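Reopening this ticket.

The earlier resolution said the output was attached, but the attachment link was broken on my side. Pasting everything inline this time so it's all in one place.
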Amino acid sequence: MDTPLQHEILAIEAVDAFHRVYKTENDPYRQISFLGQGGCGFVDLIEHWERPGSTYARKLFPLQFSNQRRKDEIERIKSEAQIIWKLNHCHVVNIIATYEWQR
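Inline output:
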């Protein structure tokens, strides 16, 4: 069941074009612990620095491709996230945000 805060975050992210780019040092999320890894990336437990105690799982995709291939992969990830974001089912994760780091 979604909390009011989750709905608020989802609404904000939808209005702000869903995807953001941060410099690494400005990442709004703080890692709490490493949860695991799979074939596509890593998952860690995080919290937003403005909402201590509200925890989320973050999936990290290491992208070490050429510029065009990297852009294509980011677009694929964003597209998949937007599809999942539209779903509302107890067995499907809620997408809170997508973002990337720029160095």
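Reporter confirms the inline version is readable. The two ends are 36 Å apart (CA to CA). The helical segments are 4-15, 67-86.
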